[in-house]
């Protein structure tokens, strides 16, 4: 089981120190929540921020694009050092093309599904997908409550997806919600507030991993 802490919940005045601390604490990759103020209301990190942190760690960088027309941003985030780029199915009029475009930069390609989005939209992309993110909150902010109906979606994905595609759950992950997700077949978890609100990051990550 893998834990990907989200820099959205890190102290924004100390992103560098937070990145180093969360790596030491056992993070398996770093999750960057990119919001454009259009697909969701908030605005967060641009590609310059990701690039500036690239040299501080060898951990994988997963860039979760919560933006309209994600195609426009793939090149910039690829060059900034993203290893995986995740686009929302709802924001991608041409999801298949977007995923292929990410692959053309030698990156891993992921698709994220909002809580209301069924999994069928992915069916003809299985051969180019590396990761599916099940949004267990509506995108836009950290610290929201886990939406239980997404457990069914995780179980369906587990049944249908080729095993090479990672099932990652994003939103509301705590020591009370992670266990059910694991039972339904999730492989990996984004952790924002749970990882960063515990003063001992390593303990928080250890606790989540104990459910794996
Ligand atoms: C939601 C983001 C998540 C979020 C997770 O818009 O995609 O990655 O920051 O934060 P928590 O774990 O606090 O729900
Ligand atoms: Zn995210």
What does this structure look like?
This protein is an alpha/beta fold. It has a single domain (2-209), classed as TIM Barrel. It is built from eight helices and eight strands. Helix 2 (47-54) links the parallel strand 2 and strand 3. Helix 5 runs parallel beside helix 6 (178-184). The protein binds D-xylitol-5-phosphate and zinc ion. D-xylitol-5-phosphate binds next to strand 2, strand 8 and helix 7.
List keywords for this structure.
212 residues; alpha/beta; TIM Barrel; 8-stranded parallel beta sheet; 8 helices; 8 strands; globular; binds D-xylitol-5-phosphate; binds zinc ion
From the 3D structure, determine the CATH topology.
TIM Barrel
Order of helices and strands: EHEHEHEHEEHEHEHH
Helix content: 25-40%
Low-pLDDT runs: none
Strand order of the largest sheet: 1-8-7-6-5-4-3-2
CATH class: Alpha Beta
3D shape: globular
Provide a quick synopsis of the model.
By secondary structure, the protein is α/β, with parallel strands linked by helices. Helices cover 33% and strands 20% of the residues. It has eight helices and eight strands.
What is the topology?
Elements (H helix, E strand, L loop, with lengths): L1 E4 L9 H10 L4 E7 L11 H8 L5 E7 L4 H9 L4 E5 L6 H10 L3 E6 L17 E5 L14 H11 L5 E5 L7 H7 L3 E4 L1 H5 L3 H9 L3
Parallel strand pairs: 1-8, 2-3, 3-4, 4-5, 5-6, 6-7, 7-8
Helix pairs in contact: 5-6
Bound molecules: D-xylitol-5-phosphate (DX5) and zinc ion.
The site of zinc ion has 6 residues, from strand 2.
């Amino acid at each position: 089981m893998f834990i990907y802490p989200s820099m959205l919940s890190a102290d924004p005045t100390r992103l560098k120190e937070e990145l180093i601390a969360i790596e030491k604490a056992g993070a398996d990759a770093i999750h960057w929540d990119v919001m454009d103020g259009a697909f969701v209301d908030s605005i967060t990190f641009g590609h310059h921020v990701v690039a500036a942190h690239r040299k501080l760690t060898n951990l994988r960088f997963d860039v979760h694009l919560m933006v309209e027309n994600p195609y426009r941003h793939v090149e910039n985030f690829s060059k900034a050092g993203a290893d995986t780029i995740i686009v929302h199915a709802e924001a991608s009029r041409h999801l298949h093309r977007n995923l292929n475009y990410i692959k053309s930069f030698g990156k891993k390609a992921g698709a994220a599904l909002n809580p209301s989005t069924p999994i069928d939209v992915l069916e003809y992309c299985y051969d180019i997908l590396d990761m599916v993110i099940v949004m267990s909150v509506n995108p836009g902010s950290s610290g929201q409550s886990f939406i239980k109906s997404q457990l069914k979606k995780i179980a369906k994905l587990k049944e249908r997806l080729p095993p090479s595609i990672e099932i990652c759950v994003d939103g509301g992950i705590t020591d009370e919600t992670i266990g059910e997700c694991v039972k339904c077949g999730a492989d990996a978890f984004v952790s924002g507030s749970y990882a960063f609100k515990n003063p001992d990051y390593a303990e928080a990550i250890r606790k989540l991993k104990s459910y794996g």
